[in-house]
Amino acid sequence: MKQFSNEKSFTLVELLVSIFIIILLSGIIFANYRQSGRQFALQRAANKLAQDIRRAQQMAMSAKECPIAICGGPPAETPPRYGIEISTANPYYYFLYADRNDNGKFEPTGGKPDKKIEEITLKEGIKISQLFCGVSSKLDIWITFKSPDPMTEIRNPGECPSFGKIVLINTNNQTKAIEVNIVGLIEVK
To answer: Fewest CB within a 10 Å sphere: which of 82, 85, 99, 177?
Structure first.
């Protein structure tokens, strides 16, 4: 027959309290991990938008030919401007375009219609929240770059005097802003 010794050991209550503390700490860490993941996704989306604006700028400065599959031809055509359209009416995507009629905004109809080059969809949980032309809020803006002079134009149904601002928001209501000024400087704030 076995006898129990009086050695120290954990009681059931001590064991349950320890498990509860571990579960509580794990829950707190997991909640912060998900929130920081959303913040990271917002930062990535803002950087991607800034990169796509820079890509339109680079396409204009290098006088890149518009692909024949998009703009037609042959011969291949170099549009006067490349740009990006951003709209709160379509808050989950934006697009790059060839501004073939050289008016600084996207017009897909007319004598020489502008052509979409690429449509970029924002990551799930991220959307375009607000657009500003200077300090006034707008529904949509066009940012175009013209070659050979490094000319940047920010337009909407009215002109932008000095800068355009795009605000992205995530599901936690955290925001990131991308500013583009008329000199062509692009900043994520």
So the answer is: 177
